[in-house]
Design a protein that fits this description.
The chain is of the alpha/beta class. It is built from 12 helices and 19 strands. The chain binds inosinic acid.
Length: about 450
């Protein structure tokens, strides 16, 4: 039980889309297990191999390494139709998962009425707050789980009981939607559809917690792959403008059933700037040409929904909060190259509230975010960092910027990414990540 090897978690430190997929993909070659533990197909991880990009939504990013065993933990919510499509896409590209995938019997399903409810809430006729969700039914699926009306993967082994498992939640959604129920299929059609979609997946359903526990006890290495990020965490993010799962470290333990002792390192992933999709606070947002430039150069459009991402400077208080929440021991700074060529690069070091008082503390109440003005420190820009693979090649100006960033966040850099491909970037000399990758 004492063995925990170099078990490592990769977690997002901003509002998602930090480039976690790339890092998981690089590290996966060194790990026996890659595990997803929360979120659903709201996530979109793009991994680029030999110039080919593959978008994954529910399948762990280790899919591209034949030696990796993939686990979908109990904290994940699954859309089975999308899962099947993803498996088929991977199969077409030559990635066969048939003997190396396990889906927790305790993971919950996303059902058509969850998606209908999510879309209805976000729609024009509804007066509720618009979160700008991905419209994938994530919130309602987690709501049903908490309300004890959810359907779990293990229930699929008992098709005769499915209608009873689904009925109460389904009826409640129908009642809420009333005349706006639209073309929501009947309960019978949902059950029928589910039985069909589940058929090819039944072989993958099992005791993921038990399997992970024995893997850990045997000393097999485990890489945990976070989805979304701390500022979207239902407890520690910018509530209510968050997703419905715990994307920060706590979610790893509830979403796998492993104890904290099973983890050694936490790598926090942040872009060299900040982005956010959907509504909600974003103090460092740039609503000018620079923001637009970052969006275009960084191709900041959602992997899942295609929506343009809001862009802004790196926000140190936001990232420092995420580092503390997750006990991050090394930063992975991604997409530094996107800032190449800018005459100046900004770093938000704090905020001034309505009274002009300077603070680095994030408000715990949504109304208190309003009126916060970012304190931006400007740095001289650099020419190019694209594709560089060691410290010595880093322009002096970029070094100065990164030093200020780590000082403000109070966590050292462990990895720097300088382009989308696996080979564009490097681990920071002398860090635990460099040891793992060497
Ligand atoms: P939901 O997770 O679809 O309910 O969306 C809630 C909020 O989280 C919205 O602002 C979404 O844009 C955001 N969100 C959910 N998943 C991701 C992601 O993977 N990357 C970035 N934002 C996300």
């Amino acid at each position: 039980m004492s063995q925990r090897k170099e078990n490592l978690a990769i977690l997002g430190l901003q509002w998602g889309d930090e480039g976690k997929g790339k890092l998981v993909d690089i590290l996966a070659a060194r790990y026996r297990h890659v595990v997803r533990f929360q979120g659903g197909n709201n996530a979109g991880h793009t991994v680029v191999v030999n110039g080919q990009s593959i978008a994954l939504h529910q399948v762990p990013s280790g899919a591209l390494h034949a030696s990796c065993f993939l686990t979908v933990g109990s904290g994940v919510v699954l859309n089975l139709e999308v899962f099947n499509q993803e498996l088929a896409r991977l199969q077409d590209r030559g990635f066969d998962l048939s003997d190396r995938l396990l889906i927790s019997e305790k993971a919950h399903l996303i059902l058509p009425h969850h998606i209908a409810l999510d879309k209805w809430r976000e729609g024009a006729t509804n007066k509720s707050i618009k979160i700008g969700t991905t419209g994938r039914g994530i919130g309602p699926a987690y709501e049903m789980k908490a309300a004890r009306m959810g359907v779990r993967m293990g229930d699929l082994r008992h098709p005769e009981l499915l209608a009873d498992r689904i009925r109460q939640g389904y009826e409640e959604v129908r009642l809420r939607l009333g005349a706006e129920v639209g073309d929501l299929p009947s309960l019978e059609a949902i059950v029928e559809g589910l039985i069909q979609t589940a058929a090819p997946l039944l072989r993958y359903i099992g005791d993921a917690q038990g399997n992970l526990m024995s893997a850990w006890e045997k000393g097999e290495s485990i890489l945990f792959e976070g989805a979304q990020a701390t500022l979207l965490d239902i407890d520690h993010g910018t509530y209510p403008f968050v997703t419905s799962s715990n994307c920060s470290l706590g979610g790893l333990f509830t979403g796998t059933g492993l104890p904290p002792k099973a983890l050694k390192h936490v790598v926090g992933v942040a872009k060299a700037y900040t982005t956010r999709v959907g509504a909600g606070p974003f103090p460092s947002e740039l609503l000018d040409e620079t923001g637009e430039k970052i969006r275009q150069v960084g191709r900041e459009f959602g992997t899942t929904t295609g929506r343009p991402r809001r862009c802004g400077w790196f926000d140190a208080p936001v990232t420092a909060h995420a580092c503390r929440t997750n006990g991050v021991d090394g930063l992975a700074i991604m997409k530094l190259d996107v800032l190449d060529g800018l005459p100046e690069v900004g770093l938000v070091t704090g905020y001034r509230d309505a009274n002009g008082t300077l603070t680095t503390k994030l408000p715990g109440c949504i109304s208190e975010w309003e009126g916060l003005k970012p304190e931006v420190k400007m740095f001289k820009g650099w020419t190019t960092t694209r594709g560089i693979t060691d410290m010595a090649q880093l322009p002096e100006e970029a070094k100065v910027y990164l030093e200020a960033l780590t000082e403000a966040v109070e966590v050292p850099i462990a990895y720097l990414s300088t382009g989308p491909d696996r080979v564009e970037g490097f681990s920071w000399p002398g860090t635990f990540l460099a040891e793992i990758l060497d």
